[in-house]
Design a protein that fits this description.
With 699 residues, the protein is an alpha/beta fold. The chain has five domains: 89 residues, no CATH class; 151 residues, Rossmann fold (3-Layer(aba) Sandwich), CATH 3.40.50.410; 102 residues, Sandwich (Immunoglobulin-like), CATH 2.60.40; 242 residues, Rossmann fold (3-Layer(aba) Sandwich), CATH 3.40.50; 72 residues, Immunoglobulins (Immunoglobulin-like). Helices cover 19% and strands 35% of the residues. The strands form ten sheets. It has an eight-stranded mixed sheet. Strands 5-4-6-7-36 form a five-stranded parallel sheet, with helices on both faces. A five-stranded mixed sheet has the order 9-15-14-11-12, with no helix packed on it.
């Protein structure tokens, strides 16, 4: 029985048992008592009706009944209110709807003597979206469930952690912000590969969707613009609500940034989900190389083995095994068992090669001037040629004296220097990506500025005409010279002794690494560009790198998605590399510019997770709310009233939501008093036993 007191305190009395012997022994004694009672009845003993109560009284005394008196302090009920303050809640007038509801509910609950736990939920870290259930879980873990009278969510219903919903015993209600007339348009990229092979067509699938209460006057077609690497965009009219397949070939190797924008309508909720940025890394399937070797020499097999060892290289090797000046009467056209398709290679299909290497080749009458002119045009149109010069390059039959000489970066002086020397990285080469840090790949450490690789034994003296000399040899004469010609590139190695590195002479050297870098530079791989501006994004932080052959750079201009321009100084961290870090204030496409170098980088998703779905809806919470008999109501129709409802009853209706009183309390004192003295039980048992004896003795 509970008796409330004027001080707010109360008492609760209960009868409890504290047996003087273990309960199993008491159960056994009760069974024996019942057995004796049945036996007495069967034997016809006249005092059985006195013996049975005597034993029952004795058993009751052993059970030791007591009166427990508890003093209790009633506890107030707790209501948890989760307030969604994510980015989508700042659309339209949702923030003001939420603020008004919080104020009204706080006043009402406080006046009822309830404790309110108000938790605000911002955007999740790393584009995690709205984490309402995570916040609810964390809050409930700190509160006693016996005091939770209900939970109220103030949100647009677009949460991203519904799987973390806790088990609830009290009603859960959702008060939706937003308007029934809201509508929005969004752009979806349904598939986009992270990598794609150059010159092969890939297909992107896009979709433009209209959500919500779309006005009747909105057309079923939309305008979409497409831009690659921040270049001028192209605009198309496309249907909405359909999958759109976009065939595409990547324009260059490395990272390609594609930006899609759908024209916004002034009546839609937001244009933040009208854009998408896709980053696809362009890679080459295979490197097609044509190796043209002259008179056989020790380095020829090295070139071939190096190229054949790379599974990504398709090699065609054209070798002159028998020079035509041999006076044996054999016509030039019959120098091979099978006629070599020189016309197809050097005229018709020369553009199919990514790189052409001339290894100690000289004019022999096999390739006429027309073929060399075709190769020159091939370079000017974007091809690449590497010349590994031997003694023949300094002779009258040098390929320099063919149409190829028009694009050569250096001219031979006709001197061949036969002496040992250590190839050195030039001052410019220390900044050029082809040779920067190449000494780190040497088999031995650098000593007194001399790299720890082996010597070469011959150098062809050349006079530089143009381009950049990145390696030098005897008395700082040009050894490796690189140049851009038209849209293509050419490299001249003024020695045929690079094979000594591969053979391990005097420890060898990084010939494979040098060849790899040369090939990638000629293929215009972004990582090997000497003038480049790149950015790597991690979360909201981007690392910016300006690569240049100049000794200094200007300030970097960063244009944010909203058009804000920020200037940032660049610091030289290694020869030819200037870097900086930038914390982007918002996701989107950032444009970078320094001097004549421009680039773009996507920081985070163009459309954050918060804006993928923006129409307020209770669909994602419906099952959880129904399980607790709660309700989903729109604040557009007004702030609902609060009612107290019994446990297990419907807790929501038109214009109202219910809370379940928990009647929780805190026990402050407990008093236990024996209900009857054990001596009284013993006296009654003896009295009944004597009575039974007297009754049976008279018979």
């Amino acid at each position: 029985m509970f008796r409330p007191c004027s001080s707010g305190w109360g008492t609760e009395m209960d009868v409890i048992f504290s047996p003087l012997v273990p309960w199993p022994a008491l159960y056994i004694a009760a069974a024996i008592t019942m057995l004796f009672a049945i036996l007495a009845i069967w034997r016809g003993l006249g005092g059985w009706w006195l013996r049975a109560p005597a034993m029952a009284v004795l058993l009751l005394g052993l059970a030791n009944p007591s009166l427990q008196d508890e003093e209790r302090d009633p506890l107030s009920d707790i209501v948890v209110m989760i307030v969604d303050e994510s980015a989508s809640q700042r659309l339209s007038d949702r923030a003001s709807q939420t603020a008004q509801a919080v104020e009204a509910l706080t006043t009402d609950l406080t006046s009822r003597g309830m404790e309110l736990r108000t938790i605000t939920v911002p955007d999740g870290q790393g584009d995690a979206g709205t984490e309402l259930m995570t916040a609810l879980n964390d809050t409930l873990s700190e509160e006693p469930k016996s005091r939770i009278a209900g939970t109220i969510l103030l949100t647009d219903g677009q949460l991203h952690d519904a799987a973390r919903a806790p088990a609830l015993e009290a009603p859960l209600h959702t008060l939706l912000t937003g308007r029934s007339t809201d509508w929005d348009r969004r752009l979806i990229v349904k598939n986009a590969p992270a990598f794609a092979i150059l010159d092969e067509e890939i297909t992107l699938t896009l979709r433009i969707e209209n959500q919500g209460a779309v006005p009747r006057d909105i057309p079923d077609r939309a305008s979409i613009s497409i831009a690659i690497d921040g270049a001028e965009a192209q605009t198309f009219q496309v249907p909405t609500g359909e999958d759109l397949e976009l065939p595409l070939k990547l324009p260059h190797g490395g990272m390609n940034v594609l930006q899609f924008n759908v024209a916004a309508d002034e009546t839609e909720l937001t244009d933040r989900n009208n854009s998408a940025v896709v980053q696809i890394n362009g890679v080459r399937d295979r490197l097609r190389v044509l190796l043209v070797s002259g008179e056989p020499h020790a380095g020829e097999r090295t070139w071939r083995n190096l190229l054949k060892s790379d599974s990504a290289v398709d090699l065609v090797h054209f070798t002159i095994l028998r020079p035509p000046e041999k006076q044996d009467g054999v016509p030039v056209s019959e120098l091979s068992l099978i006629a070599f398709p020189t016309r197809e290679l050097f005229l018709e299909k020369v553009d199919e090669f990514d790189l052409i290497i001339f290894d100690r080749y000289k004019r022999r009458g096999i390739l006429p001037a027309l073929y060399f002119d075709s190769i020159r045009q091939y370079v000017e149109k974007g091809g690449a040629v590497l010349v590994a010069a031997g003694p023949d390059f300094a002779s009258a039959d040098s390929i320099y004296r063919s149409p190829l000489g028009d694009i050569m970066p250096a001219e031979p002086t006709a001197r061949v220097l036969d002496q040992g020397f250590t190839p050195l990285i030039s001052e410019l080469g220390a900044r050029h990506p082809v040779t920067e840090g190449l000494e780190k790949f040497a088999p031995n450490p650098t000593v007194d500025g001399i790299p720890g690789w082996g010597r070469w034994m011959r150098q062809i003296e050349v006079k530089p005409l143009q381009g950049q000399t990145v390696m030098t040899g005897i008395e700082e004469r040009p050894l490796l010279t690189l140049d851009r010609v038209g849209e293509g590139r050419i490299a001249l190695m003024a020695s045929d002794q690079a094979w000594l590195w591969h053979r391990g002479f005097e420890g060898g050297g990084p010939q494979l690494e040098l060849l790899r870098r040369l090939a990638h530079w000629m293929m215009k791989e972004p990582d090997l560009e000497e003038e480049a501006l790149t950015a790597i994004a991690e979360g909201q932080t981007m690392t910016l790198t300006r690569r240049t052959l100049a000794l200094e750079t200007g300030e970097l201009e960063i244009t944010a998605p909203d058009g804000t321009v920020t200037t940032l100084p660049l610091e030289e961290t290694s020869p030819g590399r200037f870097t900086a870090t930038f914390e982007g204030p918002e996701p989107g496409l950032y444009r970078l510019k320094e001097g004549d170098q421009e680039s773009v980088v996507a920081l985070g998703p163009a459309a954050p997770r918060e804006f993928i779905e923006t129409i307020a809806s209770g669909d994602k919470l419906e099952d959880l709310v129904d399980a607790t008999r709660g309700g989903i109501l729109r604040l557009e129709g007004g702030i609902p009233n609060l009612r107290m409802v019994g446990e297990g009853r419907n807790a929501a209706g038109r214009g109202w939501i219910g809370l379940t009183p928990r009647n929780a309390y805190l026990t402050t004192n407990v008093t236990v008093t024996p209900l009857v003295s054990p001596w009284l039980f013993l006296f009654l048992a003896i009295l009944l036993t004597v009575g039974a004896w007297l009754r049976e003795g008279r018979r």
